[in-house]
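Exam review. A common question shows you a sequence with its structure tokens and asks you to describe the fold in words. Practice with the pair below. Do the first one on your own.
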Amino acid sequence: MPAPGTTPAEPKTGMLPAVGAATAAAATAAVAAAKSGAEKLSANTKPKPGAARRTRKARLRLSRLDPWSVMKTSFLFSIAAGIMLVVAVYTMWTVLESSGLFESVNDIVKSVVSTPGDTTPFRIQDYVNTQKVMGVAALIACVDVVIFTALATLGSFLYNLAATMLGGLEITLAED
């Protein structure tokens, strides 16, 4: 860069002793033409303000699902769903216990069922407690894992049969 207030120097052309001035001038002109062509090319590729640019699209066809991959993936998702079920049941049960619901149920049942000479109080926690509820939730989660994995694998086999006859699912992806 030239210093402020000075004029830029002419571009230097490296001349070999065997190269004449005409050849050097032609080479300098070729470089200048290449630069101007590159500027024109870059000006043509930039989108003009306000002009809509072309949307790129890709068409994909899902013609086959690998049943083994579907089984592994659905097994992992169903394990995650089972864990979420157990955590949700435990959270709900803890909220119900801390809200005093079971004491209220005990009072209502005692007022309806009790006799004047009865000395044994009714406690709903003797019939339904945290361990029993969590055991049932874990059992349901295990059954859910087996059923969901089997159904997803069966679904992949059925999809492969249908895709063989119909060609599969076609998806078009477009860039905004």
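Now try the second one, then compare your answer with the model answer below.
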Amino acid sequence: MKPHLACLLVAVATLVLPGLAHACGNGAVQFADDFKTPDAGWRHNDHVKIGNGAIAVSPLANRTEIADDTTYIFSDADVCARIKLSDFTKPEQLSGGLSFWITDPNNYFAFNIYPTGHWKITRLVAGMRGVPVSSGNSDAIKKGAGDVNEVEIRISGDTGTGYVNGTKIASFKGQPPAGGGTFGVDAESEDERTNIWEFRDFKILKLQ
């Protein structure tokens, strides 16, 4: 179990039946980064390296790391990225995805997928990550080492939907910060080792 698994999750995530394929990025681009010349607003540290076409996130064992671009604040948005995990031993212990409604590194929501095919939506409050009220599994999630998954979160008001590889797999209600928040990426490592997650082609688009 990861540290900080203590607070009650306010967001309510519910499993939904897979929908029709949905192409990530139908709206007008509000922010995009291919990380070849990264935007200067990205928050990073020794465990978050940015450049050469990707954000590489390597949390310490049994830890979580996020990276967000603090320059841009949005309310409604369609956020997408491609994710790759090249090596892992215990797929049930680690996940990666998109972070959203971020006010600071200790307060945000996350939509994550596991290399088991599992997904979850969680909220971090004052540094304490809550156990999802509901989560699920999806055949849309690619499970192999080195596989690339396209993850998307669509936010409208206090509701959102999660997509993986064009398939709708989750819906939820939550508590967005007043005035909007930043968006970014989220990753966690296995209990006894560090894993490296790569995120590419990060985009924030106007919700349609």
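Model answer, second protein: Residues 3-22 have pLDDT under 50 and may be disordered. The radius of gyration is 15 Å. Full marks require stating both points clearly.
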